[in-house]
Write a structure and sequence with these properties.
Number of helices of chain A: 6
Number of helices of chain B: 18
Largest interface: A-B, 58 and 56 residues
Radius of gyration of chain A: 15 Å
CATH topology of the largest domain in chain B: Aldehyde Oxidoreductase, domain 4
Oligomer: heterodimer
CATH topology of the largest domain in chain A: Ubiquitin-like (UB roll)
Structural class of chain B: alpha+beta
Distance between the termini of chain B: 52 Å
CATH superfamily of the largest domain in chain A: Beta-grasp domain
Shape of chain B: globular
Strand content of chain B: 15-25%
Helix content of chain A: 25-40%
CATH class of the largest domain in chain B: Alpha Beta
CATH class of the largest domain in chain A: Alpha Beta
Distance between the termini of chain A: 45 Å
């Protein structure tokens, strides 16, 4: 019996071996390539997904450990053609250059704002410390997270 | 055109450029219309390339190191009014796709949304030497303007003929030609319909001056931004083709190692798994990356290694191995340094070092290769698609017309993606497997088998008079390169020399090249001289500077920063640095704080003023400038490649520290928009003055002079 995982609300049988990193299954087997490989050691955050609602480095998680917990990738944020507030905020702030880190930045930020709706600057820095951006867009990412928090609070009201 | 402009030499630190440039057109005009449909097309063809166009495919028009001053660009206006610009430049995160789109929209007088750029595809775009050296803005934007202006003229002429009026009185705006006399109007789409008009770029065509730009000069957001925040953009690493296999390469244990023996596992390889040995190359292709790795793990390979030096012996070794004679073009002398030193009231000599650092682009080197009917197509994230194509053609003994290299918008490069390594590996494996193959380097491979920003030693001898005027300046750079080597300060007696050294680690371009090293040494030294002269660092620089553009960025940064500043806290320090390179000017001011107990240095605030002529996209520019400042923090403070016996000792993000959120200070960029000056590039210069500004601030706080990059890899050690 192949493992089954649930990604973005859809169930998929997994044929890759159970100790395969979730990242490889998402990208190569399920062709959900928005989640990026950056280092393979959980140090850059490019592969961040939500696992059971919490941001996790998918390169460090064997796919077997993802069975039974819903996985959300960058592709699962958009709803009915409408961007998630964090995606919209990154777009509005122009918080990218090459944008290879962007999926991971957005997923980490979504994870942060789910657990802390109104983080301080220091909390954002601490939370995103594990996400590398080599282009140096950090100040814009900070701005995007602030903006997203505001949008989400307004929408939630 | 001056001789200097004509001879735009490739700088020596671009060690990775071993192959000569090749000019050749793949796309005949009839094909052009076949692909894009009827309409109006304008071709700007570089002079060097024009000759090649008349010859057989694959002909190489020149073999020297010079870059052409003129570069090619094409433009097509379709029957539906859609506009397509063609350039061999690549989008690698510098946001040039947006800037070029704006440029065409501006000059052709069409809405931004109707313009599409086709970039960096050797089968579809004109030849281009590569996306490097801050060259795209100064060379490609004017060229696209010229083709756009020419297309506009064709459209006006077509309308004038239609109406039987003089073209001079017609007005163009919003993708329409209007006759103000009669009120008649024809859209570009109507004018292009049924036409196959093609023309070469006229010799002289007036382009719109920056003061009259309407779409250019505006902070237009990144084209296709939405595809990046949704994860839909396909980088090279994301491409998947039917039947595609994953490739892995067996890496030698150390640099320069050769394969002494090779034995494949006795077990029969799994179906669909291919192991290839070709000389010292051993690779595998398999349906999954894991199976490819397992196939390599089963290979018994023995390697013959060669002894190599370590980073500990590096700097002495560099000086020892320097060429006895410098090429003339890397030596410059004015007046007599000896006389200048003899007449100096104060002398100061110092030596500086710069470590090897890695680009570490977040998208590692990658390629997808596909063979069909003897032709090879490769998707790869490279800054030099045409050079990649030529190298692939040479390796696989193909005519260049049988190789197509396509560059998807790429996950950054910073000068690090000039070579064809991953493309060659994927192509070799794909040929053996008879199926498409994708090769994606691991982070460790990226840190080890790419190339580095060269290390270097810099020695300076200098003298100043009693009033702080420079009297002598002697500057030697060993190995790291000649970019930004000439001092912008006025010195009657000076000698500047770049000393080539044979490669130790594979080295090449990096954002700013050696300008970062040379500016670090010079601006640190200038600060030390200001201290000797007991002058304010800004006053001392101003006293020895005449260039008004340099003075202007210093003044602007001083104003934003609030220089001079009184210290308000313990361990506080302020430092400044400035420089110019590739036609743009920068001044960076830094505030740092040293924790007295732990000796930890915190960069508190960075203020930079930058001027690159007329600004094409202020938002994109600000992003580039601030990005360069943040990237510069790494090389300034802690980035260094450690190596021993041909092995990289810190080939991971867990052992090679790059700037992260906690390292980012309060940061400001002041952009000076000089609409009276041609636009220069901005990818590199903004990184140059970061390290010396911080170093000078550390000196201001502590009295400790840090002459080696990185300055504080292990924190600040008290003097």
């Amino acid at each position: 019996m192949p493992i089954e995982i649930e990604v973005n609300g859809k169930r998929y049988p997994v044929h890759y071996p159970p100790d395969t990193p979730l990242l490889s299954v998402l990208r190569d087997e399920l062709r959900l390539t928005g989640t990026k490989y950056g280092c393979g050691e959980g140090q850059c955050g490019a592969c961040t997904v939500l696992l059971g609602g919490a941001p996790r480095r998918s390169c460090q998680i064997p796919v077997s450990a993802a069975a039974g917990k819903p996985v959300t990738t960058i592709e699962g944020l958009e709803k009915d053609g409408r961007l998630h507030p964090v995606q919209q905020a990154f777009l509005d702030a122009g918080a990218f250059q090459c944008a290879y880190c962007t999926s991971g930045m957005i997923m980490s930020s979504v994870g942060l704002l789910q657990s802390n709706a109104n983080p301080t600057q220091a909390e954002v820095v601490k939370f995103l410390q594990g996400n590398v951006c080599r282009c140096g867009t950090h100040p814009r990412v900070m701005e995007a997270v602030r903006h997203a928090a505001k949008m989400m609070q307004e929408r939630g009201r | 055109m001056s001789n200097v402009e004509r001879k735009l030499f490739v700088e020596p630190e671009r060690y990775e450029f071993t192959a000569a440039s090749i000019h050749q057109f793949d796309l005949a005009r009839r094909d052009f219309f076949k692909i894009l449909g009827a309409g109006i097309a304008v071709f700007a063809i570089a002079k060097d390339a024009a000759g090649a166009q008349e010859t057989a495919p694959g002909h190489r028009s020149f073999h020297n190191e010079e870059l052409p001053k003129d570069i090619s660009a094409w433009l097509h206006v379709g029957e539906d009014g859609s506009v397509t610009g063609f350039t061999g430049k690549a989008e690698i995160g510098q946001n040039i796709r947006t800037e070029l789109t704006q440029t065409i929209a501006d000059e052709l007088r069409v809405p931004l949304e109707s313009v599409r750029m086709v970039m960096a595809d050797t089968a579809l775009t004109p030849f281009d030497a590569g996306t490097f050296g801050s060259r795209t803005t100064p060379t490609m934007t004017p060229q696209l303007r010229r083709v756009s202006a020419a297309a506009r003229d064709i459209l006006v002429d077509t309308a004038a003929k239609e109406w039987n009026v003089a073209p001079a009185g017609l007005v163009v705006a919003d993708a329409k030609v209007t006759d103000p006399g009669s009120g008649r109007a024809l859209t570009y789409a109507e004018l292009a319909r049924g036409k196959t008009l093609a023309q070469n770029l006229p010799a002289e065509d007036l382009i719109t001056p920056p003061t009259e730009w309407t779409v250019a000069g505006k902070p237009i957001p990144k084209v296709d931004g939405r595809s990046f925040v949704t994860g839909h953009h396909q980088y090279t690493t994301d491409i998947s083709l039917p039947g595609m296999l994953y490739g892995k390469v067996l890496r030698p244990p150390s640099f320069g190692a050769t394969l002494a023996s090779f034995q494949q596992s006795e077990a029969k390889p799994m179906p669909g798994v291919f192991v290839v040995r070709d000389g010292d190359f051993v690779g595998a292709a398999a349906p999954t990356e894991r199976e490819a790795q397992e196939a390599l793990d089963a290979v018994k390979a023995e390697w013959k290694e060669v002894p190599q030096i370590s980073n500990k012996e590096l700097f002495a070794y560099l000086k020892q191995c320097a060429a006895a004679n410098t090429e003339d073009r890397f030596r410059k002398q004015n007046g007599s340094v000896e006389d200048g030193l003899a007449s100096a009231a104060h002398r100061l000599d110092a030596s500086y070092t710069v470590a090897y650092i890695a680009h570490a682009p977040l998208e590692p080197r990658a390629a997808v290769a596909q063979w069909a009917d003897g032709k090879l197509t490769v998707w790869t994230g490279t800054q030099r698609p045409f050079a990649n194509r030529d190298e692939l053609a040479a390796i696989f003994h193909l005519p260049e017309s049988s190789v197509r290299v396509i560059v998807p918008d790429t996950g950054s490069a910073y000068g690090g993606k000039h070579t064809s390594d991953a493309a060659i590996e994927a192509a070799r494996l794909a040929r053996a497997a008879g199926r498409p193959v994708k090769v994606v380097w691991t982070r460790e491979e990226e840190f080890t088998w790419a190339y580095f920003r060269p290390a270097g030693v810099i020695e300076i001898k200098s003298g100043i008079s009693g009033d702080g005027t420079l009297t002598a300046w002697e500057f030697h750079n060993y190995h790291s390169g000649s970019s930004g080597i000439e001092t912008p300060y006025v010195v009657a007696n000076q000698r500047t020399e770049y000393h080539a050294v044979p490669l130790i680690l594979r080295s090449g371009s990096y954002r700013g090249l050696a300008a970062t090293a040379n500016h670090f040494a010079r601006e640190t030294h200038m600060d030390a001289l200001a201290s000797v002269a007991k002058m304010d660092p800004l006053d001392f620089r101003m006293k020895n500077l005449s260039n008004p553009r340099m003075r202007a960025v210093l003044e602007a940064a001083a104003k934003s920063f609030g220089w001079p500043r009184k210290k308000t806290g313990e361990g506080q320090g302020f430092g400044i640095a400035c420089g110019d390179e590739k036609g743009s000017f920068v001044a960076t001011f830094a505030e740092i704080a040293v924790d007295k107990k732990s000796n930890a240095v915190q960069v508190v605030r960075l203020v930079e003023a930058f001027e690159c002529g007329a600004i094409v996209n202020p938002d994109g520019l600000r992003n580039q400038v601030i990005g360069a400042m943040i990237q510069g923090l790494g090389g300034a403070l802690f980035e260094a490649i450690e190596f021993e016996n041909g092995r990289i000792k810190n080939p991971r993000f867990s052992s090679y520290r790059v700037p992260r959120f906690r390292d980012v200070p309060e940061i400001e960029a002041t952009l000076l928009d000089r609409k009276d000056l041609p636009s220069a590039g901005a990818g590199e210069t903004p990184i140059m003055a970061v390290a010396p500004a911080i170093g000078n601030a550390i000196f201001d706080a502590t009295g400790i002079r840090l002459n080696n990059l990185p300055m504080i890899p292990n924190g600040l050690r008290p003097a």
